[in-house]
Amino acid sequence: MEVPNDKVPTAGELKDAIKKAVTNAVRDLFKIEEDFYFLVLFTSGEAHPPALSAGSVEGLERVVKKYVEEYGHDPDEPNLKADLKWSFADSPYDCWEYEKYFAEVQALFDLRPQIDEFIDITTKDKAREEELSRKWAEEYDLRLGAMVQALAELDAEDVFERKTKRKHLFLNVAPEHLNVRRTALLLNAGEALKQAIEDDALEPDDVE
Predict the structure, then answer these.
(1) Would strands 36-43 and 170-175 be described as parallel, antiparallel, or unpaired?
(2) Which one of 58, 132, 196, 201 has the fewest CB atoms closer than 10 angstroms to its CB?
(3) 40 three-class SS
């Protein structure tokens, strides 16, 4: 369905909706008395509507235990804990409160031009191929930019409490669940960035 131009949400409207959803989800998350070390908005390689994943020290211990008891991993496996530490999909807080708070985000993204429509593997027209590629990149950058800006503004407003008791909390936007270096450097410094670098947890920028 084609949406009239005056009804297509702007990047600013996407950003505001993401901020609202993340603020509410994080407020609920921080009621849990655990030591959280990452908060990540993850999305697909096509920048579909994002969801929130969080990782805590206590949650990581539960995941390791699950891998040992349910999946049969050796408890003495040297890299098991390290491999799971930055696995957003394995976290007990993956897709945190998505159904509760992210409905408006989903609805606004659905009103944007559908990014998949900018892919036409059948075309042999070079000019059309280049035009579609440009439109795909523009839409991707707009969507991803709204996610990054939302986290940056919330951080400036200290929603994540990084100015006080959570200085080590790592933030990022993760296409395809990848902890991309470029956005990590934009959103983090000091203790938050130091641990991710020491753990070799950052991925190259080119994930498309």
Answers:
(1) parallel
(2) 58
(3) strand
CB burial of residue 196 (10 Å; 0-12, 13-18, 19+): buried
> Which burial class, exposed, middle or buried, applies to 135 when counting CB atoms under 10 A from its CB (0-12, 13-18, 19+)?
middle
What is the per-residue pLDDT across 85-108, written as a single tens digit (0 to 9) for each?
999 999 999 999 999 999 999 999
Answer yes or no: is pLDDT of 2 > 70: no
Q: Which residues contact 150 (CB under 8 A, 6 or more apart)?
A: 15, 16, 18, 19, 22, 41
- As for how many domains the chain has, the answer is 1
Q: Do the domain assignments include residue 60?
A: yes
Residue 16 to residue 120: CA distance in whole angstroms: 32
Classify each residue of 6-19 as buried b or exposed e, where b means 16 or more C-beta atoms within 10 Å of its C-beta. eeebeeeebbbbbb
Distance in angstroms (rounded) separating the CA atoms of residues 55 and 89: 10
Question: What tens digit of pLDDT does each residue of 151-199 get?
Answer: 999 999 999 999 988 999 999 999 988 899 999 999 999 999 999 999 9
Instruction: Check the CA dihedral 106-111-112-115 and report its sign.
Output: positive
* Nearest residue to 50 via CA among 60, 39, 59: 39
The boundaries of the domain holding residue 168 are: 5-198
Q: How far apart are CA 4 and CA 23, in angstroms?
A: 30
Q: What angle do CA 185, 189, 190 make, to 5 degrees?
A: 145
Residue 205 domain-assigned (yes or no): no
Burial class (CB in 10 A: 0-12, 13-18, 19+), 200: exposed
| Global model pTM greater than 0.85 | yes
